[in-house]
């Protein structure tokens, strides 16, 4: 949990806050806690302001913060997207007189709470203003939690609301929400509402109520492939088609997962763990862990076979060859046949097209 939240809840408020990160749940919860601690409901209209710094100059934000509160003791000013604190380029032509912010940070007023929200992994630490802001502000990191941290978040939230939750249910909720804290908390709220009287959440409740994301359905489809359950894999595929998902998108996601499995297998052979590999490949650690586990269900040549034929399928889809809804079906049948018979790699006549050959081989290795 976020240690700074305790001080906010106890109304021990700082004049300046800085929220850095991409985890929406932490960002939104922090803003809500600041609102609840700083202002009464009847004060919101006069003493609360929310600015987007892509549209509003920083000097207007500072002017708002320096304005005395009206019929209240505090004023809360939230300013999002301060691109001048990052290495990103501003989208528009708006200019910010950042010297005004520098002056304010050196002498912030005691009747306002100024909160900056940076929806990015990090700030540009080379900038003088960044260093000053981090020195003067209470910094709250809205970073993606690790797997262990996510499980703790779920358990703590359930317990604070008076619920008991089986460990298997906690782990399954984390899996079905792909390690996303915001999604997990939204689904947990639904589960708590469902079991409001019993106050007990089981793994069956999670399986019944939690909506599988497209990514999770792809995980499930590949689990079926690993188990040589082509019929089960096809059921998942047909369900996705009923949900109006495009075949080309489904195949692209399947290919992306097989490519990740192949990359993780290569890194694992060089002694790189899944957590470290996630950083190298720039994917969510939870996804890397799941993919590494799935990769162990395939032999090296099976992964290569799958990647090669997925590239072939992708090429055919993009060139309008054949019925698009049947492409994944044929791929599943080919892969099942290959895995059952342990045949060598077979490269069909399509390789006579040299351009196609280059496209397929590039897709296989990248």
TrEMBL record:
Domain of life per record: Bacteria
Residue ranges annotated for the DNA polymerase III delta subunit-like C-terminal domain, each copy included: 215-335
Catalytic activity field: DNA(n) + a 2'-deoxyribonucleoside 5'-triphosphate = DNA(n+1) + diphosphate
A Pfam family it matches: DNA_pol3_delta
Enzyme category, top tier: transferase
Residues in DNA polymerase III delta N-terminal domain copies: 17-143
EC nos: 2.7.7.7
Protein name: DNA polymerase III subunit delta
Taxonomic lineage of the native organism: Bacteria, Bacillati, Bacillota, Bacilli, Bacillales
Name of the coding gene: holA
């Amino acid at each position: 949990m976020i240690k700074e939240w305790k001080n906010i809840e106890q109304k021990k408020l700082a004049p300046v806050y800085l929220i850095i990160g991409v985890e929406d749940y932490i960002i939104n919860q922090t803003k809500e806690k600041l609102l609840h601690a700083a202002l009464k409901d009847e004060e919101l209209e006069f003493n609360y302001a929310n600015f987007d710094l892509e549209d509003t100059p920083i000097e207007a934000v500072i002017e708002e913060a320096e304005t005395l509160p009206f019929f209240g003791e505090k004023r809360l000013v939230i300013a999002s997207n301060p691109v001048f604190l990052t290495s990103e380029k501003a989208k528009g032509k708006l200019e910010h007189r950042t010297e005004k912010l520098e002056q304010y940070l050196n002498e912030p007023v005691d009747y306002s709470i100024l909160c900056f929200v940076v929806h990015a992994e990090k700030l540009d630490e080379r900038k003088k203003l960044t260093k000053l802001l981090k020195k003067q502000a209470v910094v709250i990191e809205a970073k993606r939690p690790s797997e262990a941290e996510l499980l703790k978040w779920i358990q703590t939230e359930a317990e604070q609301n008076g619920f008991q939750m089986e460990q298997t249910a906690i782990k399954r909720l984390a899996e079905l929400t792909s390690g996303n804290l915001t999604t997990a908390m939204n689904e947990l709220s639904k589960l708590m509402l469902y079991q409001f009287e019993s106050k007990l959440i089981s793994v069956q409740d999670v399986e019944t109520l939690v909506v599988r994301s497209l990514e999770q359905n792809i995980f499930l489809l590949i689990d079926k492939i690993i188990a040589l359950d082509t019929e089960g894999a096809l059921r998942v595929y047909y369900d996705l088609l009923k949900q109006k998902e495009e075949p080309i998108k489904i195949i692209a996601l399947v290919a992306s997962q097989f490519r990740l499995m192949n990359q993780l297998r290569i890194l694992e052979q060089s002694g790189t763990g899944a957590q470290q590999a996630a950083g190298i490949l720039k994917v969510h650690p939870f996804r890397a862990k799941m993919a590494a586990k799935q990769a162990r269900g395939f032999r090296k040549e099976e992964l290569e076979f799958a990647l090669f034929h997925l590239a072939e399928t992708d090429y055919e889809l993009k060139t309008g060859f054949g019925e698009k809804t049947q492409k994944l079906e044929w791929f599943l049948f080919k892969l099942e046949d290959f895995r059952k018979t342990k045949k060598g790699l077979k490269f069909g006549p399509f390789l006579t097209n040299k351009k196609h050959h280059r496209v397929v081989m590039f897709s296989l290795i990248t």
